[in-house]
Amino acid sequence: MGWLCLLFLLFTACQFNSTCSSSSNSSSSLSSGHLCHPDDSSALLQFKNSFSIDTSSDWTISSWQKAKDCCAWSGVTCEKLTGHVIGLELGFLRGKIHSNSSLFFLHHLKRLALMENDFEGSPISSKFGGFVNMTHLDLSFSNFSGPIPFQISLLSNMVSLNLRQDAETVATLSLDTLSLNRIVQNLTNLRELQLFGVDMSLVIPDSFKNLSSSLTTLVLFDSQLQGKFPESVFRLPNLRVLNLDFNKNLTGSLPNSNWSSPLETLGLSYTRILVDWHHLTRSLKSLRDLSLSNCTFIGSYLASLGNLTQITSLDLSQNGFGGQIPWSLLNLERLTTLDLSGNNYVGQIPEVESNSTGIASLYDFSKGQLVGPIPRHLSYLSLSENSINGTIPSWLGSLPSLDQLHLGSNQLGGNIVDFQSRSLSFLDLGANKLDGLIPRSIYELVNLGWLDLSSNNLGGNLEFEKFSKLQILGGLNLSFNHLSLSFNHLSNNTWPQLLLLDLSSCNISEFPYFLRASQDLDMLYLSHNRIQADIPKWWLDLGKDSLRYLDLSHNSLTGTVGQLRWKRLQYLDLRNNSLQGDLPIPPPSTYYFFISNNQFTGEMPPTICSLSILRILDLSNNKLSGKIHQCIGNFSQSLSVLDLRNNKFHGVIPGTFSKGNVLRNLNLNGNQLEGSLPRTLLTCTELEVLDLGNNRIQDTFPNWLEFLPKLQVLILRSNKLYGEIGIPETKFPFQKLRIMDLSYNRFSGLLPTKYFEHLTAMINLQEHELKYMGEGYYQDTVIVTIKGFEIEMVKIQTFFTTIDFSNNTFRGAISNVIGKLKSLKGLNFSYNELTGTIPSSFGDMSNLEWLDLSSNRLVGAIPEKLVNLTSLSKFNVSKNRLVGPIPHGKQFDTFENDSYSGNTGLCGLPLSKTCGAHQSPPSSFRQEGDLEHGNGFDWKVVLMGYASGVVIGISVGYLVLPNGTPDWLVKVVGRKQRRRTVEITQRRA
Question: What span is annotated as the signal peptide, if there is one (predicted)?
Fold first, then answer.
């Protein structure tokens, strides 16, 4: 009897112990031989045969054989008395699980773990609800999809339910309020609930109010929850792990009274839940792991951070915290993980100082105080994306457990320290001001899997073979330093795990031949180098089954490209080379295709129609000809940028733009396109830039474009557009328009005053930050006329505004309403047939930098109010019928004779004709001595800029980088072309 009791106790213990393995079952089996129930054995074999199996993994069912006891099979746990299968743990399977799967014949299952499989988007069958004895169910990361069936709630004995999903998979699991309510109400023994990545956007968060009081773990990471999260969940008496990270629309607040919680792990990153530091640190005495990235805080965190005495992992990244890092308030003795990245911290990282007894501590020299012990247990430290300066302290190179160090995007200078510890697997020092040579110690970090030293001032000649000991290197970025890299002695060296290699701007003059063996390469960047050669044939086979990103731009590559063989390519950049021949077409997987500024010829091949998921297509500045394929308009469901400017395309603009498209930039400037504008452009409601200049389009003004709500740039210059512009069709037309160029056409009639009244972005543009139009991989580019020169703005500042209606046949008076455009930088009405006077309201356009009204029929005097335009550096009213004295003072003392020539009635400086007594300028103008520093403006600067004959002057303000140096991404294309001047003059005569 005692023996039977002992056997029963052992059996019961095994039931509830997750460590009961198949090996122990086999060794403990009764001597009678096979224990496995034949029905279960048959069901398992049938289940095995319904999948393809990854035999390279140790965790596999490929060894299952019919002749052997199934209780000894890998991943199988049996009940010893009956031989029924009660536990199953399987991974690396591929195939679908159908509702008639033999898996559901295993009625005695208590533990089922099917994680890390690929079930190809299979739904979770309602048959899972038939496992009435189930206590542990883990279906995580196995590519299930569809709704979670309510039958899961029938598993009333459930202790642990894990349905975590991989965010990168296309298939998505979802859960609605009804099913969640049933799970919460029926699974009263539940202690662990993990719904990581499950779509719960339709769930009402109040459903979590009734969770079991025995719950210890709740993981709802990235589950698209929205609405107010119930405060009662934070008060669950046994809850130790709560993760709500990345539910960006989840609101609520933490309890602020009578709250004492055993929580050890709390994640609220990227939620809108209010965080009260005072109550959080007072209530969570057991907290070890705290994740509060990108949160909303109440009160100061500095005052109470030191209360977290048990904390070992702390993430306060992306919160905009400023000042110096509060090192003295951090639990440096216990911390293993610290992430303060993406804030506004300044100052230096503390150095080490030893006291009289030789004990080393961290010392903050800026504050003159000790801040605590060296954090010797740190395994992860991220201070990236701040404004930390000074040098990298030596103690960071000797931490014995440091695994990842992120210091990128700061202001750190000096030399890189020696890294004595060999534990580092990830080192990011990119985007700083580090100089000198790369220290030898880095080449000895044999466990390093990722190294980023990019965008510093590191120099010297570097033999790439120095990295030969880093055999597990997966990512290496040395780009944009002052290195000169060579690849001698590398014929036998490979990096078998290399996925990313960025050697941009490393003075490379040859294709790295060692890469021929890197068949798993995922990203390769070799831009801005000195490679002057044809693309070798072996290169086209490099990573043909793996490569997704390839950048060879800004080299001197020659010859033809040939057929591209990369099957998974998503990003291809061949810009700014000397490549020739037919246009190469990447695979259909491509999202971004840049091939501008080469010498490709011929027509678009029909295979371009296979690129149906393109987001950016840039073929500009080549010699391509033929017609634009109509299929390109069909790309607009994904296509954001279509840039075909400066080629030789002819025919009509495709009219196949469909509803729901996301086209943001359409640039066809500088081709030979004809016909009229397709009205299907109205479907492009995301359009911000429309540049159709320098073509042969023959149409009336497309006033229907005013319906496009986001249009900011409209360039129709140098076409055959004709007729009157008329009046708007909408109440608020072109509200966001900032650049409007209709020059060199055949427009006639009155100026469109009604349109000028509603150009909101030019009336009161609030944005003055240094921002450019464009998106991740593409900067918007246009050619505009500035102060008589055609300028290619390779980057368009978001507050740049200009109107150019020159070289048409507009007639009539200029309306005072134009004076409302206070944000306007440039206005050009030259070479028209305008009459009347110059409106005095022009003096209200305080931001105006150039004003060209030349070659019209304007009469009267130059308004004295224009002297108030202190930003004006280019002024031209020549060849009109103006009379009276030229205003004096401020900017008008910098303009020369050609600003006024052809107006016989004007007098005064700079003209030689003097004014009579009745024509003298008013005494209200400032005296010369007062002008130099009026309004903080130095007229000498403008005079120097104007005299240089190029666009410098005040307009450099929106062509300057943050460090104060000119942005030479602005090119002077040429002087303003007067190609229609003779034609207009003859017509007037």
Answer: 1-21
Strands (E), 360-411: 360-364, 369-373, 380-382, 404-406
Could you tell me what percent of the chain has a pLDDT over 90?
66
Q: Which residues contact 46 (CB under 8 A, 6 or more apart)?
A: 102
| Contact of 379 with 401, CB cutoff 8 Å | yes
Strand pairing class (970-975; 789-793)? antiparallel
Q: Of the candidates 885, 801, 882, which has an alpha carbon nearest to the alpha carbon of residue 834?
A: 882
- The contacts of residue 330 (CB under 8 Å, 6+ apart) are 305, 314, 338, 372, 375
How far apart are the C-alpha atoms of 57 and 376, rounded to whole Å? 36
State how far the Cα of 152 lies from the Cα of 261, in Å rounded to an integer.
29
Q: Per the structure block, which two tokens stand in for 985?
A: 């003059």
**Mean pLDDT score, 764-779:** 75
Single out the residue of 407, 449, 451 nearest to residue 431, CA to CA.
Answer: 407
In angstroms, the CA 214 to CA 769 distance is: 53
Rg over alpha carbons for the chain, rounded to the nearest Å, is 36
Positive or negative torsion for Cα 316, 318, 320, 326: positive
CA angle (552 as vertex; 550, 556 as ends), nearest 5? 165
Whether the per-residue pLDDT at 923 is higher than 50: the answer is no
pLDDT at 938 > cutoff 70: no
Structure tokens at 85: 């299968």
DSSP state, residue 355: -
Phi, psi of 590 (to 5 degrees): -75, 135
Q: DSSP assignment, residue 492?
A: T
Average pLDDT over residues 187-210: 94
Q: Which helix (H) or strand (E) element contains residue 97?
A: none
235: its two tokens: 């008060």
Q: Which domains does the chain have, with CATH numbers?
A: 312-436 (3.80.10.10), 704-989 (3.80.10.10)
- Tell me if 823 sits within 8 A of 763, measured CB to CB: yes
Question: Rounded to 5 degrees, what are φ and ψ at 10?
Answer: -60, -40
Integer Cα distance of 810 and 723 in angstroms:
10
| Stretch 143-164: mean pLDDT | 95
Residues whose CB is less than 8 angstroms from the CB of residue 176 and which lie 6 or more positions away in sequence, other chains included: 147, 202, 203
Q: Using an 8 Å Cβ cutoff, are 709 and 736 in contact?
A: yes
| pLDDT confidence band for 792 (50 / 70 / 90) | confident
Nearest CA-CA partner of 219 in 239, 250, 196: 196
93-94 and 52-53 as β-strands: parallel, antiparallel, unpaired? antiparallel
Q: Which of 471 and 492 is assigned the larger pLDDT?
A: 471
Cα(811)–Cα(857) distance, integer angstroms: 9
Q: Are 794 and 781 a contacting pair, CB within 8 Å?
A: yes
The predicted pLDDT at position 943 comes to 31
Rounded to the nearest angstrom, the gap between the alpha carbon of residue 119 and the centroid of all alpha carbons in its chain is 31
CA–CA separation, 353 and 619 (whole Å)? 59
